[in-house]
Write a structure and sequence with these properties.
By secondary structure, this protein is α+β, with helices and mostly antiparallel strands. The protein has one domain. It contains three helices and four strands. The protein has helices spanning 22-29, 48-62, 67-72, and strands at 2-9, 16-21, 34-43, 74-75. β1 (2-9) and β2 (16-21) form a beta hairpin. It is globular and about 30 Å long. 17% of the residues are buried.
Length: 76
């Protein structure tokens, strides 16, 4: 199951959206650079390649590199 989430970085007023698995959401919302992170909707679409790319982006965000997450996200 995949979820569309809405988030923003600490000190940033702009929000972004992306799709993640629930496990990725749990990790994502606990990143020190994330201020707000909420689930917008559930999706049953197959996003296997996207999910793998998002996992790589989350792994990089742990190292404070948010550029990959921004490439996979939409501004709202």
């Amino acid at each position: 199951m995949n979820f569309k989430i809405k988030y923003n970085f600490s000190g940033d007023v702009e929000f972004h959206t992306c799709y993640v698995t629930y496990e990725q959401y749990q990790n994502f919302k606990n990143l020190p650079s994330i201020d707000t992170c909420t689930i917008l909707k559930e999706s049953k679409k197959d996003f296997e390649d996207y999910v793998k790319a998002m996992q790589r982006a989350i792994d990089l965000a742990v190292k404070n590199d948010t550029s990959h997450i921004l490439k996979l996200s939409e501004c709202v």
